[in-house]
C-alpha cells in the first residue's frame, strides 16, 4: 500500500493505543469541538486521528515530561534533522549503544544536546528497546510516517506544553474535548517499553513516563477525579480509556461524573463524562 494511503501512526514506538484504538475513539467523540486537550501526551494516536478529522479545531497537547514534549516539537518543526539523528543511532544499534544512550539522562547531559539530538535519543530509546528492556533486533521508526506527521502538525493549530495534567483547568471551557489517558489506563500508557531497563535502571528521567504530583495510585486517582469534576462543571466533554481487566475502571463506575460510553468487545472500553453522555442522550431522543 502506498505511504500516502497508510493511516498516520504515533511518531515513536508505544505499546498501547494504536491506530485501531484511535479510530474507535474518534468514532465515539463529538463531531465538533472547539479545542482538543490531551494532558497525558504519549504516543498521541488519538490526537493524530482527531487532527486528521477536525482541521478547524485547536489542539493543546501536554505532558509533565519535557522529553516527550520536545520530541513532538521537533517532529513538528524539524523532522529531517530528527530523522538524520535517528539514522545515526540506528546504524550503531546494538545492546552496548542502547545502554550508552540510555545512561545519558542526567540533566546536564541533556542540556548539552540540541532539541533534535534530544528528540532522536527519545525516539531511538523507544524504538530500540523491547518490552523487557533488551535491545530490539531492529530499531522501530517509520521515516515516511514522521514526515507526513510533521506536515499534518504544521497544518494544524497545535500547541505543545510541559505541565502537570491538572494545569488544564486554567484553560478548559465549554465546547472543548478532553482526552484523559493517565498512566493506569488502557490507552497510550499501557505497558510501554522501559527504555532505561537496558541499563539496569527500569524507567528513568527523560523517557516520557512521568505525570502527576501524587505519591501513588490513590493520590493520582483523587487528582483525576477532581479534574473530571472540574471539566464537567465547565461544560466540556471528556473521554477516557478504561484499563482492561477492571482496576481503575471500577473506580470510574463509581463516579457520578463518568459512565461507560462504548465497549469495543475485546476488553477495551471508552468512558465519558456526564457532559458528553447527556449530549448523546439528547441526540438520540431527537432521532
Task: Please give a structural write-up.
It comes from Subtercola boreus. Residues 203-215 have a biased composition (Gly residues). Residues 189-202 have a biased composition (Low complexity). Residues 189-220 are annotated as: Disordered. InterPro entries: MeTrfase_D12, SAM-dependent_MTases_sf. α1 (19-27) crosses α2 (45-53) and α4 packs across α7. The protein has helices at 19-27, 45-53, 66-77, 79-91, 95-102, 107-111, 115-128, 143-154, 217-233, 248-253, 274-286; strands at 35-38, 58-63, 157-162, 177-179, 237-242, 258-263, 269-273. It is of the alpha/beta class and 287 residues long. Residues 199-210 have low confidence and may be disordered. The protein is 41% helix and 13% strand. It is globular, with a radius of gyration of 19 Å. The protein has one domain: Vaccinia Virus protein VP39 (Rossmann fold, 3-Layer(aba) Sandwich), CATH 3.40.50. The longest helix has 17 residues, at 217-233. The chain has a 7-stranded mixed sheet.
Amino acid at each position: 500500500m502506498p505511504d500516502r494511503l497508510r493511516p498516520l501512526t504515533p511518531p515513536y514506538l508505544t505499546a498501547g493505543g494504536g491506530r485501531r484504538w484511535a479510530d474507535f475513539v474518534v468514532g465515539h467523540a463529538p463531531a465538533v469541538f472547539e479545542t482538543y486537550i490531551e494532558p497525558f501526551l504519549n504516543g498521541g494516536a488519538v490526537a493524530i486521528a482527531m487532527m486528521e478529522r477536525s482541521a478547524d479545531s485547536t489542539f493543546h497537547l501536554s505532558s509533565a515530561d519535557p522529553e516527550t514534549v520536545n520530541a513532538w516539537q521537533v517532529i513538528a518543526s524539524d523532522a529531517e534533522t530528527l530523522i538524520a539523528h535517528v539514522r545515526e543511532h540506528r546504524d550503531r544499534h546494538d545492546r552496548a549503544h542502547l545502554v550508552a544512550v540510555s545512561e545519558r539522562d542526567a540533566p546536564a547531559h541533556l542540556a548539552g544536546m540540541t532539541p533534535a539530538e534530544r528528540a532522536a535519543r527519545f525516539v531511538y530509546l523507544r524504538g530500540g528497546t523491547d518490552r523487557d528492556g533488551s535491545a530490539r533486533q531492529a530499531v522501530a521508526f517509520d521515516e515516511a510516517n514522521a514526515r507526513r506527521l510533521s506536515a499534518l502538525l504544521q497544518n494544524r493549530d497545535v500547541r505543545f506544553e510541559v505541565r502537570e495534567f491538572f494545569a488544564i483547568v486554567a484553560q478548559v471551557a465549554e465546547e472543548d474535548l478532553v482526552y484523559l489517558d493517565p498512566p493506569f489506563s488502557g490507552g497510550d500508557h499501557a505497558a510501554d517499553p522501559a527504555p532505561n531497563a537496558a541499563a539496569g535502571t527500569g524507567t528513568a528521567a527523560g523517557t516520557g513516563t512521568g505525570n502527576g504530583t501524587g505519591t501513588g495510585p490513590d493520590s493520582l486517582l483523587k487528582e483525576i477525579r477532581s479534574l473530571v469534576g472540574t471539566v464537567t462543571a465547565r461544560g466540556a466533554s471528556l473521554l477516557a480509556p478504561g484499563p482492561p481487566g477492571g482496576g481503575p475502571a471500577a473506580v470510574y463506575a463509581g463516579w457520578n461524573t463518568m459512565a461507560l460510553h462504548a465497549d469495543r468487545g475485546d476488553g477495551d472500553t471508552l468512558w465519558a463524562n456526564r457532559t458528553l453522555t447527556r449530549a448523546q442522550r439528547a441526540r438520540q431522543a431527537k432521532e
